[in-house]
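Consortium newsletter contribution from the modelling node. Members have asked for a concrete example of what our holo predictions look like. Here is one, prepared for the iron/sulfur cluster complex that several groups have been discussing at recent meetings.
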Amino acid sequence: MSEAIRTTCAYCGVGCGIRATPLGERAMKVEGDPDHPANAGRLCSKGTHLGETVGLEGRLLHPMIGNRKASWDRALDLVAKTFRDTIARHGPDSVAFYVSGQLLTEDYYVANKLMKGFIGSANIDTNSRLCMSSAVAGHQRAFGEDVVPASYNDLDAADLIVLVGSNTAWCHPIVYQRIMAARAARGTKLVIIDPRRTETCEEADLHLPLRPGTDVALMNGLLAHVRREGLVDQEYLARHVAVPEGFWDALDVDHDLWSIARTCDLAPADLQRFYDLFAATPRTVTMFSQGINQSIRGTDQVNAIVNVHLATGRIGKPGAAPFSITGQPNAMGGREVGGLASTLAVHRGFGEEDVADVGRFWAAERMATKPGLKAVDLFREIEEGRVKALWVMATNPAVSLPDAARVRAALAKCPFVVVSDCIAETDTSRHAHVRLPAAGWGEKDGTVTNSERWISRQRQVLPLAGEAKPDWWIIKEVGRRMGWRTAFGYDRPADVWREYARLTAYRNDGLRILNLRDKAVIGNADYEAMEPFQWGGTPFADGRYSTPDGKARMIPVVQRQAEASLKDWPMVLNTGRYRDQWHTMTRTGLSPKLARHREEPLVEIHPDDAAALGLADRAIARVSTPQGESLFRVAHHPGQRRGDLFTPIHWTDQQSTGGRTGLLPRPLVDPHSGQPGFKMTPAKIESVAVDWTGFLIVHGEGAAAPKCLWATRVAVPGGALFELAGLGDVAALDAALPRGERMEACDPARGTRRVAVLRDGKLVAALFLTRTGELPSRDWLIAQLSQPQGPQVLAGRAPGAQADRGAIVCVCFDVGVRTIVAAIRDQQLTDVAAIGAALGAGTNCGSCRPALAQLLAAQTKEAVHG
Ligand code: SF4
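And here is the predicted structure:
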């Protein structure tokens, strides 16, 4: 067997190290890297199952012009010529790049240099705009530089961890496990501030389910409280922080406990408990993510958190910091090189000196002198015809941007769209004139930066698929063909790295913390062997910030009035992630194991709201907003606030006729960061009548979804599972069945129809439909795919088979919810470790441990209350 290669996970900003061992050309064994500082060998469910996603299924393997294969030369020449001609006719701002936190730092650097230094526009923005640009703007306002002033080590050293707007247990599972380990070792207190009661809340000391959008009031109230208690660190403020005149006077108005509790819709006693705990605990880390950032007040919310830490001097010290944790694996690398339209490069802006310095360093032909279009504005400019050539790299804006129907219309109208991606068919690539096959994770070579500023090598484990090429290579080839052969003369990622590292040090007089001087002259072998390292050490430990006077800034922020609820849109829609899926599922959707945690896109609603609206659990419902509508499966969830809905961001046209969350949010953005407010959209929900429900299991890849009202696809071993619901005659579904010998059983009285299709005596499809709602477990039928079968398969279960396991909670050991509940009850299990000992659940990656804790709590409650 080959040797393990040290690389990094493809998914979230935790940035876990991986040891990947190639097993032939298109498979690998994946293990956590015990020597990586971010995870010390642990991986969550997504990282653990990365090996299931590296096959060729769905890959784009050749350059395509329209629907025809093309040579790389032809495709690249066409891209370069069209961009050049468009710029010549309409100016540099008529073209744009929309890139991604999936790119490596070297890819990002070359794209940024091409757009901002040679094309002469700053129209390059990244999908990280949707994820953490409010944190960037907040850091710049407070610190003078976009520096995350914390490390995971601070979680180990803290006495109190406050998680704000973060379902850490699902979205950053290894960080969550680290928090749990700190609690076990040191009794670290944990407070969750989140409108939803998520699995992250299970182990918390306190959960504050605040009214959505009232975080500024809560944090300003906390600041007023610590001031009343005499806990403002006056010496730190005097030496290291500039406080605007009148700042404290504003806090004296309406920031008493009762007013804040009313604004935030929280119990005053709970609020008091949090404020007292915070006041009494100098070693506090406040970690925040999308619940704070994805708001039209995101930047103010970030600064409200940072203000409290500055005022109490809880920054730059072990276990004390505000901590923005990023979503994507290399969102931070993008921030560093300048992948956002609002920054130039290496933490420099568009000031005269910045533009002159970077231009000189690049020997730039035509420097951008002002910020470019941020994501939402960019697609509006495309729609209005001002941007005429767009290059989308490694992202799927037709799904992920707010008001996605409008984004699709813009893409359809754009005269020239290039998509470079590893996936052949996405909702975005449908609109591409040219598709360029990019290297997938496992084939890439470069660096990434995680949420705590550790830079790690991502190394190539597998050969490039088909004719795929690394992104940095594709971009530099276009740059060379546009006429800039010397500026884009890189031969390898190490060439790009050295230039980038030199730029961070260029005319850096100590004002910018991002400075990779030590890594700027390394040879190719040293780059290859580069160990993970953290830039910036402990930022601000000396109290010096990246502003002209060296002082941080307290930023006055006020709680804006809550929007009045609109008569036609009485609910508030919140959106987010599932534990085992990533973005638009182009990769995680390939893993049968990951698919089992949540097989359909659910709309979560409080049971009392559901009862008032006549929405049964597992019914189909239509969620509408002024932007659009989509169907979802209803899930009653007591952890939802009354009046709030929650839907997942992952489903696309490729997997479902519904679940299209991207169609629903408003394209309203934060005025400072340009980040869309995904977390609060006025909405309504209504029941949708269906005549029948069912499922179809099909062997093999590429089966088309049946044509009916509701059809969602997930991968299963050897095929696909479609969950179905519809109206009228079910005969139309036969068109989705593969050819073969059919066996059928119908019971008109009970409204059931069961069809099995065999080929050479082996099961290739099973269609089960009912008008009464009773359906067998899918598990047994999935296991029968491609197995020899007879008519008994129509029973949907083996004779004497055990009961349905229910939805899979532990994907590593395939343990379902019903199995766990039965074990808790029958074996009288009382803690998560006991469940692990009995069933194995939770003993591998650990991602399901919060869910196990939740099931234990529910069973205990049931036992107590009967
Ligand atoms: Fe990957 Fe999970 Fe680690 Fe995130 S927490 S980097 S998804 S293994």
